[in-house]
Write a structure and sequence with these properties.
six-stranded mixed β-sheet, 16 helices, alpha/beta, four-stranded parallel β-sheet, homodimer, 12 strands, DNA-binding
Chain lengths: ~350, ~350
DNA sequence: TTGTAGGCGTTATCAC
DNA sequence: GTGATAACGCCTACAA
């Protein structure tokens, strides 16, 4: 029964196995400098006693905490309205686990709190590296971290806003092309986008990519901004539908808004996809639960998390990492999109 | 410019302010034993140098990590399909932040991994306390933690499955009564529940509460189990609707399944709420984005997280905590529920 | 191969 | 009020 109430130290193990504390340390860290016989004995005794190195002591001695930090902006609604963050955390956590790393999470009420937390981690050494998410245009966090090369960081952001920091960006530009082309091929010539907050870098990036591709293909394009909630999504939809020549397809920046769009159409008796096509950016259970099932641009966020974990570990090991791109989006065509209505096609 | 590349220690502060390191420690921890003049000087110098205590050293000396642990079961779909966990984390993190505590998160691939992580935390002292979530019936984690009183734990679970551990439980029984009564008053006499996995304690608890209240009111009640995904939710709905005398109201254990239920009804041309009422357990953006808006039993999960944080801090301080209950559910009546169809009422 | 001793950065106990 | 000094538990040269 390896259950011990009081904490057992390396000295206890040393005494019980009749060797010195350093022998124990060597044995348990798999380092040479100790005979196989002793090693086995020490390992056995350590196991029997239920010994594990004290985290704080180990961290102090090695100046390695085995922890990676993640600062989240405190906005429970934003965080929970999309599965994104939880999926990212899942992948991140699962991969870190393989290397005995843990995830240290803190909530920042605002931009200053976020900066303070980063400062804190740099000074206290409470994490070996950190992941920067939700980067905004001209984000001061980027500047702060650029000044502190001693803190390994990976930004989940487009290279254009990550500065000199290593980054992992989503294949947005490519996905926008894919999505717009898909609608174009279905005959749509007037499309709209219901985007997220303009302050977020990725909203901006998608905005311009959409505008570019649409104009390239000679399509009419318009974009409205929201705060990601279904209320603002509905509102935007109503506005779009109120225009005399309204779009024949709308792409929403998240699934909750796409669902709300579906609702607006239903309440106005507009048939989906016969009269209007609806498409969601980011796929989730919600898309397959909705009726009709929502066509979505999906990507494997869990995998992004895993990839990020791998990169962070590389950075901790001192390797250099540049600007990388996560796996491609996949267009998952479902029932909410279809050929553009005939009258529009003829135009 | 308080920016320092190399880490500054307490000795640097001591030297720069012409006192000893212990004076610095006293001054910075607000303890007596140092004159106000020295204290102010030390504080000033420390700030100028951008000094902050090294986390590992502090943890080692005080045997307090300022960290609270949370083990999540690795199932990205389950984690992200519901906003629950992210909301809990938000509240938890925000409250902990106020007391300079952080959240340490680890992912457990299975039950054994979960036990191993708990064991690890007990032995390494990497967290000051931990939160136990998703407790199952006869959960071995509960037993393990009961044996280790030295590790403060709070179980987010019904008192009946938390054993001797302090617990914070949801007001499920009361909410079930509220929900069933609501449907009863609308004239429903045949209701069904689409529940989550039977292994989860709270599924079981809701199951029996439903059965009790329904029989008490003389209603017909039946229950099907799922894995929380929309696919199994749809399937269950189809089965329920295939019965000759099918229920006039269905309550789903989460919103994604309720949404799927809405979809099944729409696809079969069954009108909601005229022909069938649909209700969701747990409210989220999805409920107000759906069409018709879903009636839901809502609760403030973020607040539960905050409450949990407060209790954990108490436990860390050595206070005793028993079995507590979180705030009540709120029935948020929306468009997806209505009077039972006439033919049913007459029966 | 083994053991001894010093260091990691703080805190806390002592004499002064 | 102040300043050495010993923990805290582990790692790792360096000696034996």
């Amino acid at each position: 029964m390896p259950i011990q109430k009081s904490k057992v130290t390396i000295f206890d193990v040393a005494r019980a196995s009749g060797v010195s504390s350093s022998a124990v340390s060597y044995a348990l860290n798999g380092k040479s400098g100790v005979s196989d016989v002793t090693r086995d004995k020490v390992l056995k005794v350590a196991h029997e006693l239920g010994w594990k190195p004290n985290g704080a002591a180990q961290a102090l001695a090695k100046s390695k905490t085995q922890r990676v930090g993640l600062v989240l902006g405190y906005d429970p609604k934003l965080l929970s309205v999309e599965p994104y963050m939880m999926e990212l955390i899942s992948g991140l956590g699962a991969e870190l686990e393989k290397y005995d790393y843990s995830l240290l999470v803190r909530m920042a009420v605002d931009e200053n709190a976020k900066l303070a937390i980063i400062d804190d981690w740099i000074a206290t050494g409470n994490v070996d590296a950190m992941l920067l998410v939700n980067v905004e245009l001209g984000d001061p966090c980027v500047a702060l971290l650029e000044e502190h090369e001693e803190m390994p960081v990976l930004a989940i952001a487009d290279a254009s806003v990550a500065g000199n920091l290593p980054s992992l960006s989503s294949a947005d530009a490519d996905a926008v092309r894919q999505a717009v082309r898909y609608l174009y091929d279905l005959g749509h010539r007037q499309i709209a986008r219901v985007g997220g907050p303009e302050s977020l870098a990725h909203s901006y990036i998608r905005d311009s990519a959409f505008a570019d591709v649409a104009s390239e293909l000679g399509m009419r394009y318009r974009c409205l901004h929201t705060d990601y909630t279904p209320e603002t999504g509905s509102e935007a939809t109503k506005r779009l539908l109120s225009f005399p020549e309204h779009p024949t397809a709308i792409i929403y920046d998240n699934d909750v808004m796409a669902l709300a769009g579906l609702g607006v159409a239903a309440s106005q008796g507009i048939k989906v996809p016969e009269e209007i096509s609806i498409m969601s950016w980011d796929d989730s259970f919600m898309c397959t639960a909705a009726y009709p099932n929502l066509t979505a641009m999906g990507r494997d966020v869990v995998d992004t998390g895993k990839q990020a974990a791998g990169l962070l570990l590389k950075l901790i090991d001192g390797e250099r990492v540049g600007h990388l791109m996560e796996g491609p989006y996949e267009l998952r065509a479902r029932a909410s999109t279809g050929p553009a209505p005939a009258e529009e096609k003829m135009r």
